[in-house]
Amino acid sequence: MPLFDVYPLYDVEPTKARGVYVYDKNGKKYLDLYGGHAVISIGHGHRTYKRALRKQLNRIGFYSNAVQNPLQEKLSSEINRQSGCKDYELFMCSSGAEANENALKLASFHTGKSRVIAFDNAFHGRTSAAVAATDNKMIQAPLNDQHKVDFIPFNDVEALDKELSKGDVCAVIFEAIQGVGGLDEPTNAFVTAMEQMCKKHNTCLIADEVQSGFGRSGDFFAFQNYSITPHIITMAKGMGNGFPVGGILVNPVIESSYGMLGTTFGGNHLACRAALAVLEVLEKENLYENAKKLGAYFTEKAKELPFVTKSKGRGLMLGLEFENEVGPLRKELIFSHQIFTGGSSNKKLIRILPPLNVQKKHFDNLFNALLECHK
Ligand SMILES: Cc1ncc(COP(=O)(O)O)c(C=O)c1O
Fold first, then answer.
1. pLDDT tens for residues 134-181?
2. Environment class of residue 268 by beta-carbon count within 10 Å: exposed (0-12), middle (13-18) or buried (19+)?
3. What angle do CA 312, 314, 198 make, to 5 degrees?
4. Strands 14-18 and 21-24, sheet pairing
């Protein structure tokens, strides 16, 4: 039976991965500056992570949300402690789209309203409301038209004020650093105004930290670069270092009630253990600091590359913009230099999303390879 053909695939078959490297079936070694799309946070095959999952699997791997699971509480306290986002409550799910879907639904429950404001170039996932809030007509089906979503540009206070003043908006959803969209960030003044306007108009502010959260930006969450308190924070990707786990942090102004949200797989024992192991390593190995330091190193070094028109992002959520489309360059990096990088909806941008324990020598490899490619 053939696979449903939705992915254009590179002809590489990884069979092993360690740290910042993946190895193909012939033993060829590749530098992973893509992290399987910002998923690998503490590095491939980390000992602490493997041991934690193995031990948990020997005890109990899964049971449903109908019974006590203290690992969820343990995870909730640990996220609160490490992120500094006190006073939030945790609901767990299994992916980024699901996290955003739940966040949007919760905002609608809480406010009794249904229109959503999202931003130009936003990406929030592929489920019903999440894809409707994603600025890409190509991945929206007619079914998704049922949602009322309007897109405005970042930093347009007037446009946001105009929309929120209509009084029917349940949520404004934003990425503090846009991922798929190409690493644009809103200004401090805009984000501050956005928080105030949301409060004034009884609209929930949702920070989509699916890609930028769990240390990738150098802070626990990328929105912490601003002084705001979102109503809901969504998480996934780096949270599980490859284990499918996601979640939302909900400000207690939003009251819970039985049945409001639910899931079969979300918050299972293995998922909690994976996220707890990630948090343990992030703290022990000080990967927040490493993300900041290496991000700054990357940005400095990028200035030396004459063919790079712009370097973008912060922490280890980085991008390099070129004069031409980067498809052929990314292929050359994989097949001639064994380096994985990411793309974005900006076809001239390469995205760099490595494991958070990447070192200077790995970035030097990339820069040398880029110089070779431009000879
Ligand atoms: C910012 C952001 N939100 C949501 C998602 C969707 O996450 P998932 O693919 O786990 O559903 C992504 C995926 O790339 C993302 O980058």
1. 999 999 999 999 999 999 999 999 999 999 999 999 999 999 999 999
2. buried
3. 100
4. antiparallel
The dihedral through the CA atoms of 41, 46, 51, 57 has a sign that is: positive
pTM surpassing 0.85? Answer: yes
The CA 304 to ligand 1 mean position distance, Å, reads: 32
CA 254: distance to chain centroid? 23
Residue 124 Cα to ligand 1 middle (Å): 5
Using most ligand atoms within 8 A of CB, pick from 210, 221, 223, 353 the residue to mutate for ligand 1.
210
C-beta of 217 in contact with ligand 1 (< 6 A):
no
Q: What percent of the chain has pLDDT over 90?
A: 99
C-beta 211 within 6 A of ligand 1: yes
pLDDT band at 375 (very low <50, low <70, confident <90, very high): confident
Residue 123 CB–ligand 1 contact under 6 Å: yes
Ranges of each domain in the chain: 14-42+288-373, 49-284
CA 166 to chain centre: 31
CATH of domain 49-284: 3.40.640.10
Residue pLDDT, tens place only, 328-370: 999 999 999 999 999 999 999 999 999 999 999 999 999 999 9
Closest C-alpha to ligand 1, atom 4 = 124
> What is the whole-number distance in angstroms between the Cα of residue 236 and the centre of ligand 1?
8
95 lines ligand 1 (CB under 6 A): yes
For residues 117 and 152, give the distance between their C-alpha atoms in angstroms, rounded to a whole number: 7
Going from the Cα of 38 to the center of ligand 1, the distance in angstroms, rounded, reads 10
What is the fold of 14-42+288-373? Aspartate Aminotransferase, domain 1 (3.90.1150)
Distance 269 CA to ligand 1 centre (A): 23
Contact between 183 and 319 (Cβ < 8 Å): yes
Q: What is the mean pLDDT of the chain?
A: 97
